[in-house]
Design brief:
456 residues; mainly alpha; globular
Amino acid sequence: MNYSFKAIFSAWDRELDKLSSIQQEEIDQIFQRISQAQAQLSKVDVADEAVHDGYANWYWNNGALMESCRAACFERPKSSISNFLTILYFDSLVKEARSRPQASSLLTSLIDSAMAFGYQAHLASTPRFLCLEERKQADRFSRKALRFHDDVLRAPNSLLKMQTILAMSTVSEQIDETIHSELLTCAVSCARALKLESREFMQGVNPNSKDRDLARRALWYLYSIEVHHSLGRGISPALDHDWIDHPPPGACKETDCFSLQCLYAIVISSAAKMLYRQQALRQSLAEREERLETAYGLLSGWRNRFPPPLQEIHKQYVLQALTDHPTRRRALSFFRQYHEAIFIIYFPWTGSQSGGKVSEDCRRKSMDLCVNSAHVVLAVANQISCLEILDNKLLDLISVSICMTFLDVATSERPKDSISYLSMGCGIYGRLNLDNEVPLADVLELTRMAQQIKGG
């Protein structure tokens, strides 16, 4: 059972009876090219740039820039370094680094990554238009922060190593899928070697309460990103919240979304267990449909914990009343996670692989939920800037939504308003294509074929 977020790109689970075999083959190729849109944007070539052993000179001797990056790094909500480091602790690491005659790979990589992440956050909060070269510069800074990743992976296990890997993961996620996966695998191994899942052991090796809190936050941050990374790729997570005997950290300030991030990971992990474990796949049809309802209830319960304006992330007008940048960023991050979860939970039950496992009514409902999410994603993406799309990592979700909308036209007797939403997709890709290389021609061709199918 393929339950990955990108399962829609798998040709073997699509029934396109309205198309010839030649057209279906063409659709498969288009889907594959569209699926690579985000990865293509993440390619950064720094082969001609010198690699040195010290801290990256783009910030190390520029106090004003370093302060701007530091501030942005710890002020940015969700999925940030501030979820597992405090600003005082980071400052102590910088002070230690400046007092050392020779840089260590751990300190270098941690500080470089924090500064690169902070630089990205600083650019994202800039109200003016950002040129392509500025965005590429930010990607180059992120790539430089990963230059010692082999040394970091080989370093002895310690809390500092764990924190360094997590800091590096905040920048690797967007620019190098292979390194990102290696970092997460090593972080899990390090966490287990340090026995961070055990409250009793963690208290024994970290007598200082501040170190214990940092270790606890590091483990839960790793859990939250590793679960999302694994389930999004259709594989079982390496960490299980049922084996962690201490709760996720609570909110330490009003804008701290870390507890919601941890809860999201628990929700999608629980949903995947209920639906996709081998034992779950042997359930009766009635049991499975009951589990689908339960999974949707868990996701809705997570959404209902947001402040009132953000509870509308399943609707097209969610951003209309949100004008300040931090709130919009939080909303778009939650928005992305919510709709990714809809596809993970429901898309596997829409196609041929679900035959006999759910009723026709359940299959139709699953399809409707996925199509509705696709439409909402395209409508919201049509309202925001290209920078917001790229900064919030929405391109994969947009690509999935375009393909989902096409499938609605190709497989439904009466597709909803999918043609108009495909036109939105063309507009979104058209804007992105002005400064980036995206498969606009493929999206235009999908729309043309959808119009042909509907007209025929």
